[in-house]
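Pipeline run #58 for the internal structure catalog. This entry was flagged by the ingest filter as a single-chain record with no existing model, so it goes straight to prediction. Upstream metadata was stripped on purpose; only the residue string is passed forward. Reviewer on rotation: M.T. Logging verbosity set to normal.
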Amino acid sequence: MKLLRTIAASAMLTLAVSASYAEAWSLDSCINYAVTHNLDVRSAQFDRYKGDLSLTEAKDRFLPTLSASASQSWDFGRGLTAQNTYANRNTSALGWHVSFSLPLFQGLSALRQLRQAQANIHTLDLQVAYAKDEVTLGIMAYYLQVLYNSEILAVRREELRLSETQLRRQETLLEAGKVPEVDVLQAKAEVASGEVNVVNAENDYRLALVDLTRALELGDTDGFDIQTVDFDGDISLPPSADVVYRNALSNNNGILAARSAIGLADHAISVARSGYLPRLSLNAGIGSSYYTLSGSDNISFARQMRDNFSKSIGISLNVPIFDAFSTRNQVRQARAQRLSAELELERREMDLLKTIRQAYCQTEGARTRYQAGVVAVESAKAALDAMTEKYNYGRANATEWEQARSSYITTLSQQVQAKYEMILRSRIIGFYNREN
């Protein structure tokens, strides 16, 4: 029922998506929408639902079983009579039986399976949280990629604007006979190159939007837009990557899920060992029958049912002596599964350490490049303004001005790249350093 409510809420939210396109999406709204609609998350949630069913099944193993049966048969033709002769007789027999069985001791398998199912619920909860974490990190990267491509597009448009301004200036100077025609042709080539760069940047921006909407499980990008992120020019980092790693070992859902899987494998070993223990159950039953013989005086139905009524009660003990090594093989398979879970935990820990150390180093490097880029952009802009003024007065040529323009655009692009790499890597560090 809980899963159905989740699916219904997801469907209602999907219907409201088209209306929400009227406003730009924030990073938080993208993450919240993605963790609700992502197929991997929904698959993990469905596995959690199946875990609830397994837990219910484990609890039901403690309950007794009650069953009823009835049979009706007819015999035709020759048959042996009470006088030890054969005669053509038709007979009819009706019988019913109700049986009851109560497990008294099941080799601890029911109790151990219940504990395993409860541990499985905990593991599945962590798997759902881990799937949401992976979606969150992915959406974060896609979101910032869109913003990065948006700013690069702005840089390319600025580059084109400067080239167009230079072309108009060159055409004016050509008319005045102050520059050769080759300078105008060179300026036109720069404008054409700038137009190509703008087209490529626009295409990269649209592709980044497509990647983001696809990660959000949205149908299209028409009318879809996102908000910028707050950035004051600097970020704070934990003392070291090892500090982040130690915190992540205690709080990261992927690591916690891998550890829980080892405990779940221990329960599986315990369940498998239950096959070595005997089983004891209480059995009881009641029943009766009715019989008719053609050509004879038959006792009435009610009296036969009363006279043939029977009751039974008993205890059955099943002691395993040799089961063709079935239990032994199940224990070995469970132990192998535990080794696999241990290797998975080790792999995740190594991957996490690598990711954190890499993100930490990249954040430090990006911060240094961004801070240097701020100064470089200011210097390159000042140099371009000074070169433009010199060029207007004829104290610089077109090649010198183009070099100054190219330097300004390059430093501006590098600053944008460093900015968004710093934002992304620092948010990754913050994500792993958080407390659950």
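catalog note: The CA atoms of residues 378 and 408 lie 9 Å apart.
catalog note: The two ends are 27 Å apart (CA to CA).
status: ready for reviewer M.T.
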